[in-house]
């Protein structure tokens, strides 16, 4: 699709909000007429459903019954189920641009999206935006609804936070930037309270951040930060990495998906005041265990010295991926 807006239109078509049993059609056309005229019958009396039409309850059952051909798959999100049910009970709410007022959570995963366009501003109630596994390289904050509380950009190609931090959503509580292309030390300056005053959770895992001291100095300004994920960055190879973070950020509750117990924090007490322990280099020792499928060198040693036996040379290549 290219843009988030185009992907959303494709998403709506996939949901079939205008097709049976959703939307308006011959299966519930009297519902539209009933909504247009005032009720004059006494309270407690219900108008009979015309022949050939279905009650809203029967249509909802077609959506909810797991054996129904119109049911959504089990892995569908609550937002998708909500939109389908709204399309049954009040289809007029999803006509035209009014659909943007209903959506509070938008998940567009692995759809080839490259651009976060200004069409997102139509979602005036949007609180959660998940755009993982796409091809987004930059996010312009002016295109993000101010109501956002969750922004997930995992598995994209984001390499610079400057555009995102120009005017970020003020109420954002979670920012997910794992598996991107962030490199230090130029990006740490964008991770302060000046940009994210209400941030509770931050995922920077599996990027290329290297400067632990600079990163900690910026993150320490985030007074509401409780969950931090940094594993997969080169700075995580530094031996006192976890202890230094625990002592430097005393309000953290979870680091790299591991809960921080008081005993562990006490164990590293005072480490934050010893930055000289943080070295700018790391060493990795790789040990090769048993290898199968290789010729036995002892078989070549049975040839006598000076014999005319064939010369056999074996070479091997070992590749390490970090």
From TrEMBL:
It comes from the Eukaryota. The keyword Repeat applies. It comes from Peucedramus taeniatus. GO terms for cellular component: cytoplasm. The gene is Lrrc43. InterPro entries: Leu-rich_rpt, LRR_dom_sf. Keywords: Leucine-rich repeat, Repeat. Gene3D superfamilies: Ribonuclease Inhibitor. Transmembrane segments: none annotated. This is LRC43 protein. The keyword rRNA-binding does not apply.
């Amino acid at each position: 699709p290219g843009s988030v807006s185009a992907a959303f239109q494709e998403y709506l078509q996939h949901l079939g909000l205008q097709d049976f049993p959703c939307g308006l059609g011959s299966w519930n056309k009297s519902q539209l007429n009933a909504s247009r005229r005032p009720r004059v019958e006494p309270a407690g009396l219900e108008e009979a459903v015309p022949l050939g039409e279905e009650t809203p309850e029967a249509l909802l059952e077609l959506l909810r019954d797991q054996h129904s051909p119109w049911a959504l798959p089990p892995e569908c999100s609550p937002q998708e189920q909500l939109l389908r049910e709204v399309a049954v009970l009040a289809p007029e709410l999803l006509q035209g641009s009014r659909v943007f007022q209903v959506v509070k959570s938008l998940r567009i995963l692995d759809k080839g999206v490259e651009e976060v366009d200004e069409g997102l501003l139509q979602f005036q109630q949007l609180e959660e935006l998940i755009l993982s596994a796409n091809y987004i390289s930059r996010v312009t904050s002016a295109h993000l609804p101010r109501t956002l509380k969750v922004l997930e950009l995992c598995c994209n190609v984001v390499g610079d936070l400057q555009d995102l931090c120009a005017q970020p959503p003020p109420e954002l509580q979670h920012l997910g930037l794992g598996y991107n292309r962030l490199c230090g030390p130029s990006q740490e300056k964008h991770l302060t309270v000046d940009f994210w005053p209400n941030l509770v959770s931050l995922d920077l895992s599996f990027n290329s951040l290297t400067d632990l001291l600079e990163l900690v100095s910026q993150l320490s300004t985030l007074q509401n930060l409780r969950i931090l994920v940094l594993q997969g960055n080169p700075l995580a190879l530094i031996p006192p990495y976890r202890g230094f973070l625990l002592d430097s950020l005393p309000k953290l509750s979870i680091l790299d998906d591991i809960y921080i117990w008081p005993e562990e924090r006490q164990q590293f007490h005072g480490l934050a005041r010893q930055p000289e322990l943080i070295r700018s280099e790391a060493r990795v020792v790789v040990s090769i265990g048993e290898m199968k499928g290789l010729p036995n060198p002892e078989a070549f040693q049975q040839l006598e010295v000076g014999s005319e036996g064939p010369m056999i040379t074996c070479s091997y290549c070992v590749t390490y991926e970090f």
